[in-house]
Design brief:
Blueprint: H1 2-61, H2 64-73
Length: about 100
């Protein structure tokens, strides 16, 4: 009878050890997954910030004031008058 109790105790210790080992693995994987999610959230926030900065830069670069300042800086002359030439209908460049 004492052998049966000893065997049950050993079996109980083995089962408890397997349970603790499995629990530790699951907990470690969950924590690793949470860190991965946090890293991805951080990457998303950085990408959004960079996108906002690029949109601001694009709006600044495409503004009329910027274009005029750049043309003045590059010594382009201001266009005061423009003339157009009407292309004949038989021109190979005529629209169809």
């Amino acid at each position: 009878m004492t052998n049966i109790i000893k065997n049950k105790n050993i079996l109980l210790i083995i089962v408890a050890g397997i349970f603790l080992f499995t629990y530790t693995l699951i907990a470690a994987n969950m924590v690793r997954g949470e860190y991965a999610v946090d890293d991805l959230r951080s990457d998303i926030k950085n990408a959004q910030k960079e996108s906002n900065e690029l949109q601001l830069k694009l709006s600044e670069v495409s503004s009329l004031d910027f274009v005029l300042e750049e043309s003045a800086r590059l010594s382009y002359e201001e266009i005061n008058h423009a003339s157009y030439i009407k292309k004949p209908s038989i021109s190979p460049f005529a629209s169809r």
